[in-house]
Amino acid sequence: MSMDPMAALSSAIYLARLQLEALSDTDDKRIRASGLYREWAPGEHRAGEHYNAEGQTWECFADYDNAVYPDVRPGEAAWHTFNRPLHGTSPETARPFAPVQGAHDLYRAGEYMIWTDGGMYRCLRDTNFSPEDYPAGWESVSKPEAGAEME
Q1: Strands (DSSP E) along 2-82, which ranges?
Q2: Which domains, ranges and CATH numbers included, belong to the chain?
Q3: What is the phi/psi pair of residue 70, to 5°?
Q4: Strands (E) located in the chain
Q5: Coil, strand or helix at 69
Q6: pLDDT, tens digit, for every residue of 18-30?
Q7: Is the pTM of this model over 0.90?
Q8: Which helix (H) or strand (E) holds 5?
Q9: What's the sign of the alpha-carbon dihedral 45, 13, 96, 24?
Q10: What is the rounded CA–CA span in Å between residue 112 and residue 93?
């Protein structure tokens, strides 16, 4: 009996997802494994759930149901009431800057992000401000290409 390669791949992904939460105990590890998280879709979501949306990996920190809260979706203001972006602690896990909405998604010292100019920055002290709003809180660790400007 021959193995169906697609069925085998699907099974391997299923098993990897089952083990993902147990093995991923930090945001950095979750970002490194983000290819195994599903894309966000409307529906019921529970605290502790992880998914990808808009180039970020997110954690649901408060239960919600889109049948009750239809405006809780990526890109909408209510999104941040229930979800927080994961922040990487290495250049390899840097994600695009996500404006801070509260204490739940504050940038912590040692976390990395990619600013709107394409440059990578490391957070020097806990902050809810961007490199543009609080330059002393960030250190540039890569230069954007010539001609790029901060927006």
Answers
A1: 44-45, 50-53, 56-60, 64-65
A2: 20-86 (2.10.10.20), 88-151 (2.10.10)
A3: -65, -20
A4: 44-45, 50-53, 56-60, 64-65, 83-85, 95-96, 112-114, 120-123, 138-140
A5: coil
A6: 666 666 678 888 8
A7: no
A8: helix 5-23
A9: positive
A10: 7
